[in-house]
Amino acid sequence: MKLAYYPGCSLEASGKEYDLSTRAVCKHLGIELIEIPDWSCCGATAGHSTSHLLSLALPARNLALAEEMGLDVTAPCASCYQRLALTCYELKQNPRLQKEINEITGRSFQGKIKVVSILEAINYIGLEGIQNQVVKPLKGLKIAAYYGCLLVRPRNIQIDDPENPQIIEKIMQASGAEPVEWPHKTECCGASLAISNEDIATTMVSRILKAASLSGAHCLVCACPLCHFNLDMRQLKVNRLQGTNYQLPVFYFTQLLGIALGLNPNDLSLHTHFVDTTHVLKMVG
C-alpha cells in the first residue's frame, strides 16, 4: 500500500513521537508513506473560526498536491485528518465551491482521491495480518483507548461509531493488550481551550484521568497529538491542584504497536513524554 503522507505542523514539534512511530510502524507493515512535497499548514485548529473559505483553501492546497501524486492521503493528526477529510467531502459535494477554492489556491483539486486516518490505513492490513507480525505481545497491559472529538465527528467523516468506537481497541488487542471499558473515550479533553481557558481544560483533563484510573488502565492510548500533549503535560498540574497522584502514561497507538512488532524503542521515541513511561514499558519487557 502506498499513501501520500501529510504530517502536519504538530508532528514537526510537540507530536514528534507520533511522526517517528508512525513512519517506523508503517514501514514495518509494508505501508509506504510518501510525504507530500511542499505541504503547508491545514489551518487546524483556528482557520475555521476565522473564515470558511480559509478553512477550505488551506487543506485544499495540500489535497491538490496529493492528487498530483496520484495517491490517497493519510494524516496521523486527528485535527489534520478532520480538516483534510471535511474539505475533501465538502468540495466533492459542491462543484461551484470547488472551482472557487481552486481559484484561491491556484491549484486544481478534482476530488479524485480519498482521505484516510492513519488508524484506518493500518487497519487495512487486517487484525490477523497485524497479529502475525507481533513478536512481543503486550500481555498484561490494560489500556484505555482515547479517541477524543475529531476522529468520530461529524458523521460525514467519522472513522468509527461515534459513541462506542473500537478501532484502537482492536489494533491493541491484535498487539496483545487488554482494552478496558470506560465512559470517557470520546469526551473532549479541552485541548483547544488550553490557552484561552486553562482552568476549564484542566478540569476536563482531570475527569478523563479519573475515569481511566478507575477503569484499572495502566495507560491511555490515543491517536491525536493535541490530546496527547494535553493529557500528558497537564497531569502534574491536575495532581498539584487536586491533591491526586495520577501517573498514567499517554501513548500514541503507534508506539505500543511498534513495541509489539519488536521495533527499536529509539525509533518510537518512548522516553520523551512528560509522564514517565518506564513502569509501563517494564510490564511489557
Question: How are the SSEs placed, and which strands pair?
Answer:
Layout: E1 2-5, H1 16-29, E2 32-35, H2 47-50, H3 52-69, E3 73-75, H4 78-93, H5 95-105, E4 115-117, H6 118-123, H7 127-131, E5 142-146, H8 167-174, E6 178-179, H9 198-214, E7 219-222, H10 225-233, H11 235-242, E8 250-252, H12 253-260, H13 278-283
Parallel strand pairs: 1-2, 1-3, 3-4, 5-6, 5-7, 7-8
Helix content: 40-55%
Tell me the structural class. alpha/beta
Number of helices: 13
- As residue ranges, the low-confidence spans are none
The H-and-E topology, N to C, reads as: EHEHHEHHEHHEHEHEHHEHH
Shape: globular
Report how far apart the termini are.
Answer: 31 Å
Taking all residues together, what is the mean pLDDT?
A: 95
CA radius of gyration is 19 Å
* Structure summary, number of beta strands: 8
In short:
By secondary structure, the chain is of the alpha/beta class.
Q: What does the model show?
A:
The protein is α/β, with parallel strands linked by helices and 285 residues long. The chain is 46% helix and 10% strand. It is built from 13 helices and 8 strands. The protein has helices at residues 16-29, 47-50, 52-69, 78-93, 95-105, 118-123, 127-131, 167-174, 198-214, 225-233, 235-242, 253-260, 278-283, and strands at residues 2-5, 32-35, 73-75, 115-117, 142-146, 178-179, 219-222, 250-252. It has a 4-stranded parallel beta sheet with strand order 2-1-3-4, with helices on both faces. A 4-stranded parallel beta sheet has the order 6-5-7-8, with helices on both faces. Helix 1 links the parallel strand 1 (2-5) and strand 2. Helix 1 crosses helix 12. It starts with a strand and ends with a helix.
